[in-house]
Predict the 3D structure of the following.
Amino acid sequence: MTTYEPGLEVAVQAQATLGEGPTWDAARSRLIWIDILGSRVNTYDPATDRRTVTATEQHVGAAKPRTGGGLVLNLRDGVALYDGEDAATGFRWLHHDPTPGRRANDAAVAPDGSLWAGTMRYDEAPGGGTLSRLTGDGEVTTVLDDVAVSNGTGWSPDGRLMYYIDSPTRRVDVFDVSADGQSVTNRRQLAVIEEGAGFPDGLTVDADGCVWVALWDGGAVRRYTPSGALDRTITLPTVRPTACAFGGADLTDLYITTARVGLSAPHPMSGSLLVVPGAGKGVAQPAFTG
């Protein structure tokens, strides 16, 4: 018999095809999350239960708040800026780089306000994806150019380490971050997801420097210490959790996105936004400077 995480709740009942990228928007006290294949950006205010859904023009891999308001989106054909509140108004490309057969995937904002945006091929071919760093003025630097499925990216609380997942490798890797925050070196393994436990997908880093990883096809979220030791597992009824992030006024609630894609008999919670209240203590995430 499987025992699921005590206190697990459905924050937003939904049927997202590929729910992803939960991000706490501190300036507006709301959670932003997306449906990649549904081409939707969702917001959820837990205090008021207000929800919005905005259609994008193409598949969207990530949506993050900007310092000046609006969103930065990692889209199929590049990175774009959306102005306004909830509607997709004022669309403009920051970096336009359409590549046949390729789409955007997960992205994260670094401590210096830059966007680290991942891509992948639709067929998930090895070496078909990248990880790039983008600044608010549109400067683009390729960080990794031999990626299959670019996924979870996050930084230690002091900004000196960056964690990264290329899902088919089954690894959670860690890099040293340069003093100016613009580059990473010394890639090494933090943890390996064993056969049968799923594939690592999105991640978040908590105030203790521990790394929380959603396990696609593993029905769980795991917490690893900075030394790589597994010290907690949250078991879920949905087999395809995709990413996780801390949110709420005190950053203690763990939000988890889920997917329905590819499931012949999805659980009723599949595609919904889940939450485990009081799961830990998160770190405030920076907004994109642009």
Notes: The chain has a mean pLDDT of 95. The first strand starts at residue 9 and ends at 12. The chain is about 0% helix and 50% strand. The two ends are 49 Å apart (CA to CA).
